[in-house]
């Protein structure tokens, strides 16, 4: 496979893809937790906000979310700055826009995963924590979350694999990740099959490696638990 | 748990630090990077081309500290208005519609729109009925086709290069694009079985640099620099590097 | 922050045209994917290695790479080869971006539906199959009367999820010149320079379409399961 010297460029693109994925997943995990807490809350307003978030973001194509965040961020951020009396323009560069857009999408699906996982935590755990005098925050962070993590991990792992592939969409707003680097290579060499094929193989490799990593994480999270016999 | 928190915090910090940016003192130039020979990206990732050389010459003349960044064509005007860069040097034509969104400097070259099609086809500008024509989205070629050609199917592409790929593959009967960009492509391996068809359909297309509305300071600086490099021969030197004829 | 509604009203008919193409793409690729998924899913669950090798590789490839890369491979990548361009049967099909998008989306979703099918078949209670055998049904009859109807009912929720995912994947067809909803939106924005308003209008259209599709599937589930609905 003759890459016309573009090999290093593709590797740079792959690195950008990984940076974007990890950046987006941290935003997404935070949003997912917030959403799950909101949706399980006893306040109707919070539940509605959570419901609205997941329904809207899950019903609109990721590509459109990326485009709206990228083009809308300037208007939105500038408007907010104006509220504070600032005259400056603010905008999100493609990396930040991609992180936010992918994070929003991940968070919407992660909310459901966390919500389901929350239901598996016995109420007794929170009650015991409270009887020991642990405050609400400590109870959540130290008791519920570690147990939540174990149950939610398979679902979250799947979502991360999807996120990795969705990073290709950010090429549309000009980020130099793998897909865009491949397009540049095609423009130079006029050989679309070679470059897109190579990109496909790299994505496959990323999938395999991530899959392996997730299996190891699941193994570690489940240490000390006896598996149900099937 | 601590390590995870650190990781999350670090990711947040990286994302936010690279994200928000004020407009700075230096001048950032925005270009597309997919429009040879005017602006393209080579295999080392460097942005090169006629537009880039002109921009660098203008910046040197006006004593500005310029950097060049790429931007997808569809979003190039919104990006300018969002202050992602301060000027667009990307072979952008002056049109009334664009004038509503941006201000233009004096033109730095004149372009013509001309069809290219396979050598062995009998396509001509008069014979468009039932054909499939291609152009880049959001360019004057695209708009010209939509306004003047009602009896053919018009396909719009994200980049000029994708349109050429489809012409070479036989999906298009002809492409309407800038004469000089076509000229460059016809010289290449992929374009050797193609040729210009008919006379240019539009030959008074003025290409200029776009700046934000009301940014007269930058506009006058660039205009003065442009006059200077035309007068002192720098423009001619750059022109000759790319074309055997003058394109001013 | 000003929001211009007039540009949405002026261009809404065009957006609806794009929405219609989107619906066509989703419906046809949903059906196409389902048809492709049957041999894939059944082959995948086979005990013989030489039977499951190809389905496994197919599913691995189509689930492990982004849909965007797959579309570019089919549309731009295949056209690189002279032998395909000169083929009298393949080229008229692969020439057209609509068919390229349809083929890619069908192949993509087939990989996921095959896995859903596999899971659904494995979830059928063994007892039902044993009962069918004990009554003397032939394998073909068991497939037609027991396996497939049961698998369809078990797999329908997951299948409906997959169709919604295809609705969102259809937006990628705009990158290969198709004027479905997202492509139409981008074309309108190229002329009006008002991205936020048009994209939000397009997003609204997608929400309406996905709402209607979800409703349709709920209705189908309701009808298909009416024999056990009142069991509680």
Keywords:
heterotrimer, B: 248 residues, alpha/beta, D-Maltodextrin-Binding Protein, domain 2, 2 domains, eight-stranded mixed β-sheet, three-stranded antiparallel β-sheet, 9 helices, C: 232 residues, mainly alpha, MetI-like fold, 80% helix, 0% strand, flat
The quaternary organization reads as: heterotrimer
The value of Rg of chain A in angstroms is: 21 Å
Query: Can you tell me the CATH architecture of chain A?
Result: Orthogonal Bundle
Number of domains of chain B: 2
CATH architecture assignment name of the largest domain in chain B:
3-Layer(aba) Sandwich
Low-confidence stretches of chain A: none
The amount of beta strand of chain B, in percent, is 25-35%
Provide the CATH top-level class of the largest domain in chain B: Alpha Beta
| CATH topology call of chain A | MetI-like fold
Strand content range of chain A: under 5%
CA(first)-CA(last) distance of chain A: 46 Å
> What fold name stands as the CATH topology of the largest domain in chain B?
D-Maltodextrin-Binding Protein, domain 2
**Tally of DSSP β-strands of chain B:** 11
Q: Alpha-carbon distance between the termini of chain B?
A: 64 Å
Q: Portion of residues in helices of chain A? A: over 70%
